[in-house]
Design brief:
heterodimer; A: mainly alpha; MetI-like fold; 13 helices; B: about 270 residues; mainly alpha; about 0% strand; globular
Chain lengths: ~290, ~270
Amino acid sequence: MNNRRFLFWTLTPGFAVVAILALISIAGALYFSLMDRSLRYPDYHFAGLYNYQRLLSDRRFINALQISAIWEIVTVVGALVVATLLSVLIFETVKSFWLRNLICFAFLAPVLLPRVAAAFIWRFLYSPSLGLINYIVGLTGFGPVEFLADPSLALFSVAVVDIWQWGLFFTVIMLKLLETLPKDPIEAAQLDHAKTWEIHAYVTLPMLKAPIISLALVKAVESLRSFDLIYVMTGGGPGTATETLDLYAYQAGINLGGRISYASAMSILLLVLTTIVFTLIWRGIRKWAV
Amino acid sequence: MGRLIRSSIVSIVLALMVFIALTPILWTVLGSFKRLKDIITPVPKLFFSPTLENFATILQNPSIRQGLGRSVVVVGASVIIGAVLGVPAAYSLARHVRALKDDMQFFVLSLRFMPPVAIAIPFIVLYLDLGLYDTLTGLILVYLVTTISTVIWLSVPAFERVPKEIEEAAAMEGCGPGEIFLKFALPIAMPSLFGALVFTFVLVWNELLLALTLAAGNATLPVVAASITSLGKEVPWGVINASTVILVIPPLVFIGLLMSFINGMMKPARR
């Protein structure tokens, strides 16, 4: 009896607040996506699926969808590749406890930076006229590279910043994971004269399959929140070369004339898409990792 | 000989990585003490006569001072409320819920899937109608989604790590569930819980989109910082560097805590 009351009073307030707020925003977005509301006019009417139909023929929306997909893949794969290579390298070569901790501290610093701050730092570094990177590029004889103004480079230049933050952070986590592994299988492989890279490719990394997949999932979720980084560094430009879905929804719904309903339809599509994809991945992982 | 070459290559690669990790930050700190004429040079300057002008400009700028104050209020309130509501829920989830535990944990995680724009747009309209637009209360309310869910998500494993025997022994002594939670589970799990709270703090301290859309008139620090580029005609790089440094300091203070949090999370759970 007492137990049930305790359970009720601890669980209900937290979950209720979160559920109500989430419900308000989803129901609100769904409702407005079926209207023709914009911030310019106070009145609005039912518009049916008009907004969704327009989205499907909106080339800027299709472009944003593609940019978002590229962004997700580049940042998730990039962060994991950096983390895997660096953590194995450190695990194999740095044996001193203090040196390892020192490297870990250095690698943790970037992820703690606010995205806005990271964006400013790198915009400064990338600057064609006074940036440190272009100075180094200039020493090798190549002219200044327009990292953020060149449409074919801009998205990757921003992705580098994201990987700088998350790849190094994941390196620390993977290193700690490698340290927790039992020593026996590694020693057994060494007895079989396996090369170092073979031990990691066939023994240690497969043992870490489950945590690595969760890291990938966490990164995929966090990569969806790229707005701050891109907004400060390029604002979606040049043109629409770095305009992801959240940036376009922001531009359409808030900045340009406040087409609330159109932006709502966009965010509902985004929500449905991410929920389906991530739920499938989550269920798949749990089946596969067990 | 080959071994010597290989180990020196490894050292160079590692040194380079530490360099890449830290230089951007240190360069910005350096830049924040430079006069504009020391920044706009064809060859980057490592030595110059430092100035506190940039920090003076920033701290005299009322919008940045107010932004700092608002950030403290908004982030403080949302993290504290998030902890008060989230930590007990996480404990019950870890210890008393069986059947629905996985689904409830997934629900909390799935809130992170929600695109921030999808939260922002309906709340703009709602807040305009309720008169909460451009208020800190409105912003705190929306941040609760992030803080409560993150606190629950990270605290469940922290409570699962508390040895069960202690709680069972306390129950044998006749302690109620509330007493066990407050007197035994909470103090033991405290170090990891603190890490979870710090992580939550960093998340909302860094948040830009919701603050920009729901309370642009009462801008928090990230919003103020993001708008500095358009202060004047000439890009005030020194001032931008200085405001970046101010924005960076609070989260960076917690680097040691984050480290011990990761170490704690990686230890195998005691059963």
